[in-house]
Design a protein that fits this description.
The protein is of the alpha+beta class and 252 residues long. Helices cover 21% and strands 35% of the residues.
């Protein structure tokens, strides 16, 4: 599963962080760890997104998984929380034009900068996997990514030590998770809806059943809201939405 670099777990912001040179997936390595543990690797050989889609994880990016406690009723909020945490950290680095794309992409305008994957291997615990393009070259491994991804190195020329990035990201995740475990996620949903580009025409793939409409954000249960042409909204559970496609904007 992994090639271990001789780096014992170290304490970072009340987290125990394990570092590897290469792993199949940081989420899989983190699967057996306790809450407030994190795994970081230089590369992943089998990085993945939702529905087992391939995630190119070449050297130069940040591939990080964080284990957090989560009461099961609040699990669907975690991808939204993780997206907010990533955006907050990037804003602090001076990155602008950030937005979230349902359910787990962090975008700069229309290019993907980061992605999130939540796994729940054991009751009461969840693994938040984060992939962030920094100065890696994913298009060299998958030509279809050309002109579709963004890198932190192209937005913020001054490099930031990856250890500093991990520290502030873990700090922000913890500060958002703790209120969630107490059942207080209303302020988080407000922040989520601020980061989404509402009013975009989209198509939802509900495992082969295609629904079209206007993206209207998320409700207080973390479900996607799709608005039809007469203004009526339907809520969809995240696990029901296999894919969301943003339609090209049309201007008369």
């Amino acid at each position: 599963m992994s090639t271990v670099v001789d780096r014992p777990g170290k304490i970072v912001e009340d987290w125990t962080v394990w570092e590897y040179d290469s792993v199949t997936s940081t989420n899989l390595v983190a699967a057996e760890l306790p809450a407030w543990s994190a795994v970081r690797a230089e590369t992943q050989t089998a990085g993945r997104g939702r529905f087992q889609r391939k995630w190119v994880s070449d050297r130069g990016g940040l591939w990080l998984s964080a284990v957090v406690p989560t009461p099961s009723p609040n699990g669907r909020i975690l991808p939204l929380l993780a997206g907010v945490a990533v955006c907050d950290v990037l804003y602090g680095l001076g990155v602008r034009h950030l937005r979230l794309r349902w359910p787990n992409d962090v975008m700069v305008l229309d290019r993907k900068l980061a992605g999130v994957l939540i796994d729940q291997f054991r009751p009461g615990l969840a693994v938040i996997g984060i992939g962030l393009n920094i100065d890696n070259q994913p298009a060299c491994y998958d030509a279809t990514l050309e002109n579709h991804i963004e890198r932190l190195a192209d937005i913020r020329p001054a490099p930031i030590p990856i250890e500093n990035l991990i520290t502030v990201l873990l700090r922000r995740i913890r500060s958002l998770v703790q209120p969630l475990t107490a059942g207080d996620w209303t302020p988080l949903l407000s922040r989520v809806n601020d980061l989404w580009s509402k009013g975009r025409r989209v198509e939802l793939d509900l495992d082969g059943d295609i629904r079209g409409g206007w993206f209207a954000g998320v409700d207080d249960a973390g479900r996607l809201l799709l608005q039809d042409d007469v203004g009526a909204s339907t809520a969809y559970d995240p696990e029901k939405v296999r894919h969301l496609t943003e339609m090209p904007e049309y201007h008369e």
